[in-house]
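Workshop exercise sheet. Pairs work together: one partner reads the sequence aloud, the other fills in the structure field after running the prediction. Swap roles for the next sheet.
Pair: D.N. / O.F.
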Amino acid sequence: MNLAKPETLLITLTGKDRPGVTSAVFGALASAGLEVVDIEQIVLRGRLVLGVLVTTPRNLARVRAAVEDTAAALGMDVDVETGVGDNRARSAGRSHVTVIGLPLRAAAMAAIAGRIADAGANIDRIERMARYPVTAIDLHVSGVATDALRTVLAPEAAEHGIDVAVQPANLMRRGTRLIVMDVDSTLVQGEVIEMLAAHAGCEAEVTRVTESAMRGEIDFEESLRSRVALLAGVPQRALDEVYDAIELAPGARTMVRTLRRLGYRFAIVSGGFSQITDRLAADLGIHFARANELEIVDDHLTGRIVGPVVDRAGKAAALREFAAEIGVPEAATIAIGDGANDLDMLNAAGLGIAYNAKPMVRDAVDTSVNVPYLDAIMYLLGISREEVVAADAEAGIVTPAPPV
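Structure field:
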């Protein structure tokens, strides 16, 4: 068997982009009967870089002249280089490194790229996922195990105030089909129980206990029952007033709407209250909801919970239950949360994301997103903002345009 690498020809064109460049280049190559080995093309601010790898022709001089004439007619620069073989195969240890900044500065990218090189890894491909309202860049990296790469990049992310998510480059990234979200301070801004407490005149005390529970300093069930007890006597209509005052996290509707189009299922699992979460689920088209039920007697809150409390373990159990119901493995789930009560759920999922989370939560999971846009989660899944905007436009939904 002849294992000799074939001779190949690399043609690289650079210049102002315009329609017909790729067609013209291949038209110049067509008569030589060449085989196409690879093509790469990028466009940055109207400047095109086109790389074409083909088998070496018998009459190299004639092909070179044809390509150079074509480039001249297009007003572009061209380089023609002979060599052997195809592109180098990507090394083992393949990862997606998603870098998100608000803004993303050159110094941060220099630090990330430098640490990747220092680790002995290689950046094989770079593509932008978004430029507004955040900048998100996806790096295809090979040569170092994902866990090791995550470890060396985490300090740079912290130092430069950016988010860096490192995920294995495997089929599971495309196989995710269930996203499970916390509600308070994740899907919605603020804490519902504190909004209810305002109606009972005990907001400060409830806020203090809530913050301590979210930091993991006190038992969640104990803290919840003590906070709910303070709500005794609040009229039921306060639930409607609180629901009307709720503000979703920026990008929440966009994320749910976009991923539902792709067949994703959604669940919300909350240490809050079903009287609120069930309405949120219906409003957003979320498939599953699990939360605590406030007891109501004679149109007033009694200060008690009906049934078992949805706590830290209960959230993880709900994730597993919903995954089993739709027939997906836990590895094909994403969990998003911000507090200590979410940790078991975050660690049970294939990808646990600490979203604007408490420090102890960020330290306990592999991936953090700290920009105030929930739809930034989609960039971790390989979905670009341009794709989202185009899909919305087809559906007649107008999305804000980026600044010029």
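Discussion prompt: The radius of gyration is 27 Å. What would you look at next?
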